[in-house]
TrEMBL record:
Organism placement in taxonomy: Bacteria, Pseudomonadati, Pseudomonadota, Alphaproteobacteria, Hyphomicrobiales
Compartments it resides in: Cell outer membrane
Keyword terms, alphabetized: Cell outer membrane, Membrane, Signal
Signal peptide from the UniProt entry: 1-19
InterPro entries xref list: Beta-barrel_OMP, OMP-like, OMP/PagP_B-barrel
Keyword Ligase (UniProt): no
Natural source organism: Methylovirgula ligni
Entry protein name: Outer membrane immunogenic protein
Domain of life of the organism encoding this protein: Bacteria
Family: Belongs to the Omp25/RopB family.
Amino acid sequence: MKRLLLAIAATAASFPALAADLPPYSPPPYYQPAPIFTWTGAYVGANAAFGFGNFTNGGSPYFGSADGGLFGITAGYNYQSGPLVAGVEGDIAFGGISGSNSPYGGVYSNGNVNAEGSLRVRFGYAFNHTLVYITGGYTGANLKGSVTDYAASPNIYANESTFLNGWTIGGGIEFALTHNVSVKAEYLYSDYGSGNLFNGTIDSIHPGLSLSTLRAGVNYHF
């Protein structure tokens, strides 16, 4: 019993020395959790588009079909609740979507959309970083027309612009590459209404315009 007590005492006496040799305790490292992704917030961006369609009403015989490219800027705001996303988006683009025709002998004419824009609402469903949406609202375009009429006496040489007001509807898909940068592709059908060109001449017309637009863009989210 005496030997046992001495052994226990010796072991107890050695604990402080063993503890001194152990490395100091440090808590496990803390890692900041990744922020939850959301589509909520403002954004700006740039886009490029190809449009194709037809001049309508009195514009059809003078300008025929239309096609061409546009480049523009976009700004908007999204609000997300669960997987549902609602927002408003506006854009303006410049370029040339044009068509030309000769409605009858001695008359040569051209119509060109050199600027267009829209203000639309968007409603979508988010699959985390992917947003599928529909969109629609107001659209407008500046149509510049020109006509040379050698059949008239005196001959007519006219260049004139009119602003068209109409509506647009479409849909698209947007994918967030990072928390701040996304890319998108969308399709829009636009009916720009109609305007008046070459008033006061025998070539006075009331042209309209309808277009299908394929557009790709990149957005920066704040």
